[in-house]
Amino acid sequence: MKILLNEAEIGLGIDRLAGQLKAHYHDQPLTIVSIMTGSLVMLADLIRRLEMPVRISLIQASSYRGGTKSGELIIQDHMMLDIKDRDVLLIDDIFDTGKTLVQVTKRLKEMGPKSIKTAVFLNKLGQSTVTAVPDFVVFEIPNEFVVGYGLDYEDLYRNLPYVGVLEESDLKNHVAT
Ligand code: 5GP
Ligand code: MG
User: Fold this and answer.
1) How far is the CA of 133 from the centre of ligand 1 (A)?
2) Ligand 1: does its nearest atom lie under 6 Å from the Cβ of 147?
3) Which of 32, 84, 98, 164 could lock 112 by a disulfide, CB 3.0 to 4.6 Å apart?
4) What pTM value is reported for the model?
């Protein structure tokens, strides 16, 4: 698999994001809402670099799709903490068309947070179909289908410590589950 971002580069990127969040929120308590399942690895790495009081909430956004094409979005928020009057940071693994982040942000706004910002691990350049942009981006990447560091293909590869481009030749070894 072609490696796009190695473990050391990712570590530095998450350090940088933690610094930006520290500069923005200082010691204010923060509620991080993590979009399952792709952003879990980023969540685990990020929170251990933050020193303000942090609450963690999970929300699931998934589209009915197998493989690489996005479909209709289903949002499940039964695992959400109360975010009324809280400063909220919504995190996701990748900003592609932008629909996921826009729709989840809209749902969270209905819950009455004091503020809401968004952070993504990857921003796929040139793909956005929405006017919104994430407030914080760890890495910009070209328009290729990537896996690893939380990102999956058919629910596999999330555990790779690096980000790789999944190519046709890699799929020969793919074991469907
Ligand atoms: P959007 O709603 O911005 O189009 O898509 C965001 C979601 O699509 C991500 O949370 C992720 O699940 C999926 N996605 C988009 N591009 C990629 C990619 O290159 N690799 C993987 N594994 N998932 C992607
Ligand atoms: Mg996702």
Assistant:
1) 15
2) yes
3) 84
4) 0.94
